[in-house]
Amino acid sequence: MESFIDSAGFAALILFGFLEAACIPISSEVTFGLAGAWAYHYHHSIVLVIVLGTLAELAGSYLSFYVGRIGGRPMVNKLGRYVLVTEADVDRAERFLTGRGIWAIPVARMLPFIRAFTSLVCGLVRVPPMRFGILNVIGTVIYATALSLLGYNLGSAWTHNKDLTDATYGIVAVVVLIIVGGVFYRWRQFRREGLGGGKHSASGGGNRGASDAQAPNGEQEPAGTAEVR
């Protein structure tokens, strides 16, 4: 089991980092924290963990970004049901970004819960792709570095006090429980919003309609677009 964890470590980091950034309910705190602890125990480069994790998140972020940019709200709402993304999630990220300027993007990428949906909103308000990528990387690198180093230091303390081999099955069980718990929590939120969807849509649609800004070409454009750009 320990040999398998060692060989699958980087693959798991890349997979989970990509999925989390693509709005799949996987905790980035767990991903990078355990990756840091794993790197210490198996004597891997913590820098490589940060670089690979950041690239994986960047790829997942761009996927979400283009879903929002190309498909708009209709596609986000349609695909959201498959990955348990609620309208409230997108609205929360949009409220944070609106009116705060472009530097809200790296800040949002460092905030739990909001960070996963920042890319969708950036696509919805049509932030230029290159600018989005640069600002996204800044926030992701800081966040990934902090969590990976925390996990690395915790791995050091764990190894000095207890043989990690004896806890291999326990670690795997904890990771599985966290992922399952996260999915269940997201499912409950999605189901709750679905039960009250009609009311939410009616009130939300009115608010969005009142706050939409007029674009130069005469089309309606989401509020906050100019500030985020």
Structure description:
The protein contains 10 helices and 2 strands; from the N terminus they run αααααααααββα. The longest helix has 38 residues, at 46-83. It has one domain (2-228). It is mainly α and 229 residues long. 78% of the residues lie in helices and 2% in strands. It has a two-stranded antiparallel ribbon. Helix 1 (2-21) packs antiparallel against helix 2 (28-41) and helix 4 crosses helix 6 (115-124).
Short description:
By secondary structure, the chain is an all-alpha fold. Helix content is 78%, strand content 2%. It has one domain (2-228).
Helical run tally = 10
Number of domains: 1
The major β-sheet equals: 2 strands, antiparallel
Largest sheet, spatial ordering of strands: 1-2
Tell me how many strands there are. 2
User: What distance separates the N and C termini?
Assistant: 48 Å
- 3D shape: globular
Give the topology, please.
Blueprint (H helix, E strand, L loop, with lengths): L1 H20 L6 H14 L4 H38 L3 H11 L6 H5 L6 H10 L4 H33 L6 H28 L1 H15 L1 E2 L5 E2 L3 H4 L1
Antiparallel strand pairs: 1-2
Helix pairs in contact: 1-2, 1-3, 2-3, 2-7, 3-6, 3-7, 4-6
